[in-house]
Amino acid sequence: MLTKIIQFSIKNKLIIGLFTLLLIGFGVYSLTQLSIGAVPDVTNNQVQVITTSRNLSTQDMEQFITYPVELEMANLPGVKEIRSVSKFGLSVVTIVFEENLGTYLPRQLIAEKIQSAAENIPEGFGTPQMGPITTGLGEIYQYILDVKPEFKDTYSITELRTIQDWIVKRQLSGIPGVVEVNTWGGRLKQYEVAINTNKLNAMNITAQEVFTALEKNNSISGGGYIEKENQAYFIRGEGLASSLGDIGNIVVKSENGFPIYVKDIAKVQFGSAPRFGAITGNGEGEKILGQVMMLKDGNSNQVIEAVKERVANISESLPEGVYINPVLDRSVLIGKTTFTIAENLILGVLIVIFVVVLLLGNLRSGLVVASVIPLSLLFTLSLMYIFGVDANLMSLGAIDFGIIIDGAVIIVEFVAFQISKNAARLNAFSSEEKQLAKDELTVKSASKMMNSAIFGQLIILIVFIPILSLSGVEGKMFKPMALTFSFALIGAMVLCFTYVPVAASLFLKPTKTSKRNISVRIMAFLNRFYEPTIRWALGAKKLVLGIAVLILASTIYLFTTMGGEFVPTLDEGDFVIQPVLKTGTSLKNTIDITTQIEKILIENFPEVDQIVSRIGAAEVPTDPMSMEESDIIITLKPKSEWVSATSKNELAQKFKKALAIIPGMEVEFTQPIEMRFNELITGVRADIAIKIFGEDMEVLNKKANEIKNLVENVEGADDITVEKVVGLPEMNVNFDRAKIARYGLNIEDLNEMIAMGFAGKSLGSIFEGEKRFDLVVRLDENNRRGLSNLQNLYVDTPSGEKVPLRELAEIKYTKGAAKISRDDTKRRIVVGINVRSRDLQSVVDDVQRLIDENIKLPVGYTIDYGGQFENLQSAKKRLLFAVPVALLLIFFLLYFAFNSIMEALMIYSAIPLAAVGGVLLLWVRDMPFSISAGVGFIALFGIAVLNGIVLIEHFKELKKEGMKDKKELIVHGTKNRLRAVLLTAAAAALGFLPMAISTNAGAEVQRPLATVVIGGLVTATLLTLVVLPVLYSIFDSDKKQIKLRKSKQKTLPMVIIIFLFGISGMAQETPKTLEHLQQMALENNAGLKAASFQKEEANALIGSAFSFDKTTVFYEYDENNLAPNNEPLEVFGVQQGFLFPTVYFAEKNVNQRQFEMQSSQFELQKRKTEGLVAAAYYQFQFEKNRERVYQSLDSLYQNFAHAVQRRFELGETNYLEKIT
Prior knowledge:
Radius of gyration: 43 Å
Largest sheet: 9 strands, antiparallel
Oligomer: single chain
Strand content: 15-25%
Number of helices: 39
Structural class: alpha+beta
Number of strands: 35
CATH class of the domain at 519-561 and 899-1044: Mainly Alpha
Helix content: 55-70%
CATH architecture of the domain at 519-561 and 899-1044: Up-down Bundle
Distance between the termini: 57 Å
CATH superfamily of the domain at 519-561 and 899-1044: Multidrug efflux transporter AcrB transmembrane domain
């Protein structure tokens, strides 16, 4: 079939040219439409359910909100994991689903369950809502709404927050691909009625009277319409308050004809809602931050560009002096990684072209091969667009065009050789005849080499199938690589039998073969060293194999000493510092500390470009932090401008040292995307999470601190922190029910009074055009400063008295839970460890050993390990499946190709030899084993066997041509294929070289993969050229080969002979006659038995033609239908179905013909079996007779030799006559 495609391509060059142009056009279009990102989005399929209830404590949030939500979600189909965080006023439940459920089905399922959960949550405690449809890569653009220096005093943070909410956010929200614009920091503007309790009490006014007055004097209504003189006049009652003056002039109560206004008992002013988060920046104090979140699976590059375009338009409409300052632009990282991909691909392509041209020795041949590279890339981009694969560091960055063009190299090299070989004949033709002759040569040459070219690439393609079986984080990371590599290989294979033959036929010219170009000289130089080496190896086989086994054993030991990590950390170019402060630290104090940190870093480190600190929770709290928690995002300048340090680790240590002057603070270092991924995937931000599960928060906290102190001195363990779960300062109001009953009060009214006084109570809205602000009543700021204000809060009784709260409850300071985290409904605490200057696996091993030896847990408490370590363990388990499957697939392909287990095993020896180089180069470069390296090994194993295939195939060809001397056959064969072996290996290895040595952004992830392939190919090539010929010289014997022959006609007689004669011979029975053997075969042949059963079945069906359907008896009683006697209708009957008579006879005829056909097939099978047994029997008799003849001849020759020997001994003949 491939030959016909090649012939069609050569005959229809114009069509192939048009298809090539179409490929180029569609590939370029696909490139413009592809979703381009920095790294694959590895966030699992999760939905967050967020509930805010700003007045509830941590324990109450868990009991009344988190638990009911978890309970409802636990029974949803496809749920893998449920995590939750409960904090003061906030509950976030994260539900992780199976990936195959998609994005929207889980949200639909949760939407239904949220309604049920809301029914179990007390009224007024908050309403659960789903978080935005976004992922860890969703925060694509963050900006500060900043003010120019000359306008610093013009705008307050409340005014800036209003600008953000009502101008910037509204205009950004309509962009396609933007799912949420989150606001962080500033003060949310409110119209505030701040009650003075002294005036309230002096004028004998209750709080309820104030509420009623405000609610009844801030409303609108309508009165329908009146028709007058052909005109309809609509009635509108405008009673909305629109200013502070309107609110202050509302009458609360009239006393003796004198009105008491709101302004008489309260201060009417602009206020702000209680804050649970803030933003500071560049040491300049508070700022306003906007986070643009992208829709899951959106095109990040396109969305960012649309956001930037909209920001430019918004900037023109902002008030004077206000501007948008981008602080995190994901397109910067995308640009850096895209540059890394482009640089690696371009350098790899140039190196491959150079190697191909150099070793092929023909510029035109090299250019034909090189042209396959961009066409394969365009083909890959086209399939990526069709199948929705994103372009990023992993999907495009790991393509090695040295491997991709392997098939094209094989074909072009052989076509060029044939054209050069026939140069004299071709040059004698006219131009038209020469082209026809070249076409014919190209078809023959390409067809001859097509199987080798396609088979080699097919092996590599098959090897990537197990990578597609990976799931979880590693699947999301490496599946795109496997897909794009497969796309490129498929494209290269298609081009091999379409474009490549056409290009070779058109552009390759017949040249003189005697010309010694640089390629010939290089190969002659290498052969001068290689030939003595291979001859020595063939003479010292045991020594060579012993050295190979010793190297392999040493490598295995070396591999066991290497550490492990999940994937190398991507250098995002930015830092995130997470200060660890005392539990319960006020928001104001946290703001002061982050501002101080910013000033220290900006003043002492010129590497810092700008700093933004995110404190607490945002408006949409997808990242639930407490007021003492913060993320300090540090944007760094390019490394070329660094002066304080040469690496990020060194800079982090200097940052930590500089910040040590701030008392009572620890710091953790991470990166923006890394932090977000860790948190969303595993629920913690650290590289290693030691999770302790149990019920009592105090016990959990105690054991966590014991572990922290224990592991502080472990090498590589850094930023060790304990999750803050206890110690939150509280003012606890414990009601005295007896006293409450005495005054005729109830607890609900008292709780509402406390909430109103300190948190505030919303009584409607005030409109400023389109803008809407809450009207809130709360106590004056002077009356809500401390415990005494709470104790002295007066409560109105039904009798008109005013009683201080201290008379109704015990009010005191206590410590409560700061945070309650749960995994799968079990409480837990986390000890977080970040890893520095050491591999993850080794740190975890040391930590586990220390904990196992020293930590004793109470009954019912357990320890588990999570974070990146959890991902590493999960990925290792999947690799333990994927790698053996890849190895098995390679072996099966080799076996089917060579039809010989021995030859397949000989080629298979390249795999351990390749692993040697991969492990050694990882060790030399001080790289731990990672999943990236593991995927590199899988790819390496597929590539490594190609050289073995080339050598073994050529050895077999030489054998067929009549070369008998095995040593000379091996030497000659290896010399002939040295160029092909070196070309394949050099192109593949050097194609990975740029990514192996790259230091650009994102290269960290690619480096282990490229290192493994390069190291493995070097040793695989060197050892294959020596060890494989030695193995071939030892094991290539017809007696030692186990072959599966394709011809059943040859196989069956041999099986029959072995079965019938071998067994009977072993039992020493009397030889059977031909008739007896035929009878045995007929009785024991499974196929014949099956045919006999089919014949009997067909015979039985003849009589079944006249069978009728079953008779049906029925009875119906119908109250709705009445019989003539007005009684319910009763029907009793019998039903029997019949077909038209001719149908039965026709069916009988069909069954009769079927029986006759089965009978004929049975007889045919019987005769065939008898014939095969007879052929086997006569073959056996012939071989027995031949054996007897040879035995007779042997006896004659032995007698003759004995006679000659006797004559020589008696001196009757000389030695010459004896030996002749």
